[in-house]
Specification:
The chain is an alpha+beta fold. The protein has five helices and seven strands; from the N terminus they run H-E-E-E-E-H-E-E-H-H-E-H. A seven-stranded antiparallel β-sheet has the order 2-1-5-6-7-4-3, sandwiched between helices. The longest helix has 15 residues, at 106-120.
């Protein structure tokens, strides 16, 4: 169903792909918008229990697109070091294909929002306060991963093309 990676020597293991998702800070969500064009948006996220979670306002382009079609892609660029003298980049990235679900149960929204908050700031009181402050407009989305791959640039793989 999903394509094999063309540059298989650069493919990272599933464990390394998960590490990228766990340690990354920002990803780019791709959805199919109502006009058939892809729509991508950078966002912060948390990877927990084999799934990706992010928060959003209850309305907007990405939420409308997810409601219309739950198939999404999500990319995290973990390393991105340009090597000017070699005209190349030392990079690691992970790409997810999955299905997005807008969370509806209060407990799952609170849990997702709290895990997200604590990834970026360990202050639980602040997390609880922010969730409460934004509750009326808070939307949380879960991405169930169908396919995950990761890749590293040749410079990081220690190989020459």
């Amino acid at each position: 169903m999903f394509r094999a990676m063309r540059r298989e020597k650069q493919q990272l293991s599933n464990r390394e792909a998960v590490r990228i998702l766990e340690e990354g800070k920002t990803g780019v969500l791709a959805v199919i918008s109502e006009n058939g064009y892809p729509y991508t948006v950078p966002l912060n996220y948390v990877y927990y229990d084999g799934k990706i979670y992010f928060h959003s306002a209850k309305s907007g382009h990405k939420i409308d697109a997810i409601r219309a079609c739950d198939k999404v892609s999500f990319c995290v660029i973990f390393k991105d070091d340009v090597i000017k003298e070699k005209l190349t980049t030392a990079y690691e990235s992970a790409i997810v294909f999955g299905r997005a679900r807008i969370l509806t149960e209060e407990q799952e929204i609170v849990e997702a929002a709290k895990r997200f908050s604590l990834k970026y700031n360990e202050d639980e009181e602040l997390a609880d306060r922010e969730i409460k402050n934004y509750w009326n407009n808070l939307c949380c989305v879960e991405i169930v991963i169908d396919h995950l791959t990761a890749k590293a640039g040749l410079e990081l793989m220690g190989q020459k093309e």
